[in-house]
Structure formats: structure tokens, C-alpha cells
Amino acid sequence: MEILKRIGILTGGGDCPGLNAVIRSIAKPAMNYFNSKVIGILDGFEGLVEGRMRELSPLDVTGIINVGGTILGTSNKGNPFQYPVGGPGSVRIIDASEQALENYRNWQLDVLIAIGGDGTMHISHKFGQMGMNIIGVPKTIDNDLDATDITFGHDSARLVATEAIDRLQTTASSHHRVMVVETMGRYAGWIALGAGVAGGADVILIPEIPFKWDKIYDSVLKRSKGAKFSIICVAEGAKPADGEIVVKEMDGKRTDPVRLGGIGELVGKKISDETGLETRVTVLGHVQRGGNPTPYDRILGTRFGAIALQSASHGEFDVMVSLQRREVVTVPIADAIGKLRLVPPDSQLIMAARSVGTSFGD
Ligand code: F6P
Question: CA dist 61 to 30, 142, 173, Å?
């Protein structure tokens, strides 16, 4: 057993529902059973570089399991290995990893538990190699992390997107319109696929299956003669077979400089121009990341936190907790990074969706 006198926790990257459930399930047993001090590092790796932290009290982690976001704050701009410094117009990128390591040592942390997505796991592994005792906990609404069956946050985002489709359907039906709904998900189509299937979308467009414009026009024209409305669920990373992914902006300060967005508007305009059908576009955006976690995400977050703490107490570092066939286990962080978990185009769910008439635009 490791003696865990001081446990650091940070949340990195984009937030998602369920982060507080993890923080709670690490902090409560750490305080109650190990008598450890729990140090909350503020705003992700930014706080580790800049020396911003506060010790959490039992009250800080009470009544938070149902609360979305993160009580610690987060940032997707604080990669210590490529750290942006300077103001607008004069941004320089420096390596601030030694500074971060120094803070970790000065705070006398026995372990740092980093809750985050792909970017956070990359950074965590590098710190692990530099001698930091680090454990990763995978979160992201995108569900795109390899080496875990699912990340917490995804179920909550999928619920929001499904509810949105349910609402769009009634108004689409009343006005005999085509409704396009754009979901998040970066380069993976899990949110669009899950919500699209659950919401009964007529067309689902995901990055893993490049689409053809004509196929979409055929689907909505056919529907316009029968049901008289169509729902198209498009992932922000979807792209036409003969075109490119739509990028909203590039921001060099971010861990991932590419901000996706805009494919929904493009799909809506093309349908309206080419078929003459009245079309409206809804971009769900950050609504998918906000609000209360679902019971699934609260439970998975609680399980992840408990196993992360257990691994720390066994002195097992540079690992990430992971759900594998219903059991939470640990895997080397090295195995969890560098490969995105994408939707297999021949998966059972895609086949099932096709069998009820859903088009993937291919
Ligand atoms: O990775 C989570 C995510 O919500 C993606 O789905 C989306 O592309 C991105 O973050 C948005 O990032 P930001 O919050 O910086 O706009």
C-alpha cells in the first residue's frame, strides 16, 4: 500500500457532465479512509503550470454528484509542453513542463489524478515518463478514446441530442420541413449516430462514412412525398466524399487547434437549393456539454474515481482507468493514446439503422 498523504486532482480539456462525480468519488474516500489531503488544481494543466490550487474540504465535494461542469474549472489551452504565453498578437509557445513538475513537487503530491480526454492523456503520459505519479480518468462527450468501451459524459450528451431531435420532429412534421441538426463529436460520429438512431433520424451523417449529396437529396425528396418531413442528424466532423471537413476556426492556443462546425449550415443550404424543400438548421453546440449528468454518467464517474484511487493506493501509475466489458480496470496510458475510437462503418448499430430505412448518405 502506498501512503497517500496528498492527492492532486485536475480536470483538463472541454468539460462534460460527470466530472464532479469523479472528483467526489476520489475525494470522499481519500479524506475519510486515507486521511489524505486532496488538492484541487484549478483550470486543468494551466493551474499546474501557473501554481493555482486549493485544498478541497469535505463540504466542497458534498452535493455535487448531480451537478454538471467541474468544480475545479478546466481549460483546453494549457498544454504544458506547448504552453502559450503573451497577449493577443504576440503569442509565443514555450515548454512549461518543468515548471509544472516543480509545482507538483512543491505541493508534495503523492499522485496526480488527471481527468480528461485524448489531449489530457497525452500530456499525462509525458509527465508519467518524467517521473510524475499520474493516473488518467477518461472523459469526453465524444466517446472517441480508445482503450475504454465508453467515456463518461457521452451518455448525457447523447440524451440532450436525442431530446432535441424529438422536439425538432414535431415542428418538422407540422411545417412539412427538412430539419438538420448538427451535433458535436470531433472526428467521431458516436453522438450523431446514437442520437440519430434513438431519435429516428431519416439521414445520419458521420465522419466515418463520407456522404454523397445526391443520396441525401433522394432521401428527403422521397420523404417529402410520404411523411412530408425529414430529420437529418449530422456530426460536426461529417464530410462529403468529394469534399473536406468544415472548420470553424483555427486557434493555436488550444491543445487541438482545430475547431469544427458549420457542416449543418452547408447541408441545410444545399438541400434547400437543390430540392426546393423548406429547410431549417439547428446547431446544438455546447448545450450538449452542459447540465446534469445522466444516472449512467454519475455511476460510471463514481466507479472510475474509486478505481483510480485504488490504483493510486497500490502504487500503480501511468495508467488510465477504463471500462472493459462491464468491469472497470486499468490500462497503460500509452495504450490509450494515439488512436481514436471511431464508429466501425460495418457495426451492428449501423446495420440495424439501415434496416429501418435510415440513410447514411452513402
Ligand atoms: O471534445 C469535446 C468537444 O465538445 C467536441 O465535441 C467539440 O468539437 C469541442 O469540444 C468544442 O470545443 P470548445 O469547447 O473549445 O469550443
Answer: 12, 26, 45
